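Lab manual, section 2.4: Encoding a predicted structure.

Procedure: take the sequence of the chain (385 residues), apply the prediction step described in section 2.3, and record the output as structure tokens. A sample record is shown.
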Amino acid sequence: MSARSFPTTLILGSTGSVGEQAVDVAKQHHIKVAALSAHRNWRRTEQQARELGVRAVAMTDEAAASELRTALADTCVRVFGGEEGLLDMIRMTEAEFAVNSILGEAGLRPTLAVLESGKHLALANKESLVVAGELVMAAARRADLRITPVDSEHCAIFQALRSGQQSEIKRLILTASGGPFFGKKRTELTNISVDETLAHPTWQMGAKITVDSATLMNKGFEVIEAAHLFGVSADRIDVVVHRESIIHSMVEYIDNSVIAQMSVPDMRLCVQYALTAPVRTEAVIPPLDLVKVGRLTFAEPDTETFPLLAHAKRMLAAGGACPAALNAANEIAVAAFLERRIPLLAIAETVMRVTGDMPHAASAHTLSEILDIDREARERAKALL
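Recorded output:
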């Protein structure tokens, strides 16, 4: 298939782990990238802008935007600065598609801007759906736009769902690597260091998502994300620990057949499929050798040692902005852990205490109400740390 068959694309969060892989896939498949965004890493963004020949770049850090304007002064690239500048760039740049790999709640307004400007979305920013899933999905439905998931688990389900109809789904089965502390009990986690936490056994990811993987908070977020993306209630979404990370997730249908998507653990496949779906293109990852893998194992997640997975399901069931409060408190607590100000176990304790003190979050549904809850949860978490 020729490169002209693929839509012109924006890559948001282009210097992060997923963003870099999106840049790599775009170059390999000659996908036209119209614009990029990043936060502070203007030097890498300059390299990407020149390599891809983009028309516009946004840096949400104003000082970085100023540096980039100087660095790109010999080009015709327009540089936008600040959070509002990023939204302006999304709305003004002509493209059919956008990859949103911005980290954290900061990705929500760009997600909405992508949809409001009539662009299909490849979504790697799970917080958009955790914080405001109902609003995001409603915006996509109104404009008849496609949201293609980039997370490996949701990408797997997205592919497996091509084997049946929505009415035939019995349950979704998300797989989890179990993180670096699989098999450990709570008493063994009291003196865990940041370096130990960041030593993920399978995936190379950013620091924040790696910590979330270690606490199983990331899997809780993925349950919330799956519920919104695929229209399946939380009680029909299960999680199994699969240490080999070969099966990326599964769909069980009403006839008890289970469709699984398997590959070597490499996010470039997810990024590629999100950009080209439903078309499959030449591989950017190594082939899967099942003989070499040898065996596939499964286990129940330990929600006593890692309570945030079950707590995320409770927050989803509570509704409203409860998941937004969950995400906000977690972002503050994880940042404190990475700064070595609190121990690992304090993350879950902080998140559960903050959300437990905010039952009023369930009645918040509009964007302004959700953002108010987000701010309140952050303030409450900071007061505890």
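Check your result against the sample. The CA atoms of residues 180 and 199 lie 6 Å apart.
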